[in-house]
Amino acid sequence: MRILVLSDNFVPEQNAPALRTFEHCRRWVEQGATVTVITTVPNFPTGIIQAPYRNRLRQCETIDGIEVIRVWSFLAPNKDVVLRGLDFLSFAIGAFLAGLFQKADVILATSPQLLTGLAGRLLARVKAKPWIFEVRDLWPESIVTLGVLKQGRIIRLLEKLEIGLYGSATRIVTISEPMRERIAARGVPAEKIAVVSNGADPARLQGGEKREQLAAQWKPLGRFVVGYIGTHGMAQGLEVVVSAAEILRETNVHFLFVGEGVRRRELEALAQRQGLVNTTFLGMVSASDAIDYLALSDVVVVPLKRTATFESALPSKVFETAAVGRPMIVSAHGHVADVVQHYDAGIVVEPGDPAQLAAAILQLRDDDDLRSRLRAGCKKLARDFSRERLADLMLGEIRKVRNCNSEV
After folding, report:
1. Which residues in 375-394 are b (16+ Cβ under 10 Å) and which e?
2. Which of 27, 260, 283, 321 is exposed most, by the fewest CB atoms within 10 A?
3. What ranges in 297-353 are assigned the alpha helix state H?
4. 263 close to 238: Cβ distance less than 8 angstroms
5. Does residue 218 sit in the same domain as residue 189?
6. pLDDT tens-digit profile of 356-376?
7. Are residues 363 and 398 in the same domain?
8. pTM
């Protein structure tokens, strides 16, 4: 079976879409599928190309048996709406043109940006092949919620495109049951929508050479490390973590921010203005280093802004944190809070409430038995959401689509 995947992000980028797509595709290759991924050069979230790549018209490589075709696109940091829109549009055009020359039995286009879905739809029509729309985020609802764009003509056009993509897709796969329900509420038949959650690959999370070095650097200082490892974007509402750091400035609690994003510089400046010496911002690090910093943390914070849109979200950092056995503090409502509570893998606090977050941190710092219990819950969560099992579920959905098409 030949699977053609369109994804704006792919390794060596380390955001959730890139890792999910890579780990799924690697497993499909192991299962005997021929997988081709059309993507861009690695540049997220800064818009700066990672060495040694260049933004060429077309370049090919093979990663773990996956044929990767990188097409030219207009690159922009993940903060300017107009420039980012040009980025999305140029990739959609490049992906469509490159896809014309690739054989495929099934086409998989992955969101959140809808223009990748449009490229998948057009390729499916030209090739007369089925296509799957993988919906990891509800656009354009999310960008309105975050204030990136206001309701108006552009949003109405995107909403029309969204509904059109849902209607034309042979199958829709999303990441949570609440998100499935929200898509069905838009008039899509529920039986057309499958759920394949995010997850983590424990083998990938073993870490690199820095783990012992970091432990020697941080642990003798008596710090209780609270980590946030991931994108510093608008959806996370990381101001609440900085505010909690201010509340705990006279304690041994130290806050470690690892990652890049549109809000990172603002958050770092806020901490500096407040004179917080108990915060460290490291920016973007390598994948193995990020895992080592995750393992260094005594507790990991998973924040999301308080909005109805994000109540259906289930961030992949939950599963990565669970896989390294670190208790979580979830500052969010909705599905992510329900999952963490169900597995007893962390504490849930009110989103946007720094006092509750600070109190939960102190509770975990002072209660060894509680941390031990939550680590056990993390192991159960990681086992049930192993990326290998989820990749097999996704491959099952692809096979269903391929088999139904062959019967027509």
Report:
1. eebbeebbebbbbeebbeeb
2. 283
3. 317-323, 335-342
4. yes
5. no
6. 999 999 999 999 999 999 999
7. no
8. 0.86
